[in-house]
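Q:
My hope is that you can spare some time for a protein that puzzles me. I hope you can help me see how the letters and the tokens relate. Thank you; the sequence and its tokens follow:
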Amino acid sequence: MVSERLHNARSLASSYYPRQSFRGLVNIPFKHLFLTFILALMLIVAFFASTTLAYSEKRVFVADIEGVIDPAIAEYVNSSVKTAERANAEALVIRMDTPGGLDTSMRLIIKDIFNSEVPVIVYVSPSGARAASAGTFITLAAHVAAMTPGTNIGAAHPVNLSGEMPKEIEEKVVNDSVAYIKGIARKTNRNEKWAEDAVRKSASITAEKALEIKVVDYIAPDLKSLLSKIDGKPVKTTAGSIVLKTKEAKVVEYPMSLRQRILHILADPTLAYLLLMLGFYALIYEFANPGLGFSGIGGIILIVLGMYSLQVVPVNYAGLALIILGIGLLIAEAFSPSFGVLGAGGIISMTIGSFVLFESPVPGLRVSPYVIIPTMLTTAAFVMFATRMAVRARKQKPITGMEAMVGMIGEVRKKLNPRGEIFIRGELWAAESLEGAINEDERVRVMEVDGLRLKVKRLTEDKTTIGGKD
């Protein structure tokens, strides 16, 4: 019995695992196995060789800074430096055109440059560009500084973006900036004297003069020419001494991410101002004409975006308070018309607030008058139109209810002596004559309404149909 069961188990196993398949594998020719092994080895070697070649290829990353130096730009430079380091790039070129910007963002950028393992080249370009204010500090901090003909650098005197500073405070800020820029120039072996003048005297110079007095290292008409000129130049980074090999390097553009681009756009004071204004107008419309709430929701979204912009750029809160006060007066005008008094006050408050909201000497950090004036004129036109319509509505006679019957023409159906009945608007009404007896079929005009009784006078001219008005 046991031997029979063992025999059956062996038979079942042999049906699932036939011996012929194993024998077939053993019988594969040795040369076929060897060729398969060699082919797999070659594929592995080719893969690692291509990967090594890709990483060993000389590359130069290029990041573009255009506009005001703000937190979005600082984040962009930080990500550019880290990307260039991960890719083991020969260098990172920052192509720059800026009027200046925020001190905090500028210092973050300079920290990233100083702590970069990859050489950072600041290139003021294209022709007509500038490295003003904060851009001067950043250019001096670069491992290699270059400019395009037709560009300028300087005017780095610190300014309070919210207005004038007390003299004592301004002196402290200037001294701090002078010490900072001189330390940068000393570290990068550039002209300390001119760097101090750029801060204290707002000195500004051309590209040619900057090269002559050793503010920058090179002048180049384009990026290709610059990479050729700096090839072989030794620089020092946190990774040690490096000899630049950029002449034959592949140029890799590193653009801002969508998020960084949006944040940079929102940092524009003009856009922040327009977002706030449009948001406030949408709320006013929603309050004056309650509906499904689309304008109210849209207004809140616009205001939130505008408030984000105010967190990015410096703002004068007195100006913001004046704008909010003006909006409040306009809303009050919409709910309780004052024949333009509240509206006029709102416009004046908003106009003053608009001009001082971003009161900054830096052009890129203030709202252009060419934006403020049309906005306020449009608001004034709207308030004038609304006031005119309110005045007209108040002067207009009622068109519904008992009061609407004043002035209408009727026909006497029952003699008024002095009371009787008249026919008006297809109905019989109790009426009372204000000037003695009036016979049947004579026409009368309604002069006033006393409860459900109409007080009338005889109509001297017969030019109007019954129920109408002159």
Q: What stands out?
A: The longest strand covers residues 59-66. DSSP finds 16 helices and 16 strands in the chain. The two ends are 127 Å apart (CA to CA). Residues 2-52 form one domain.
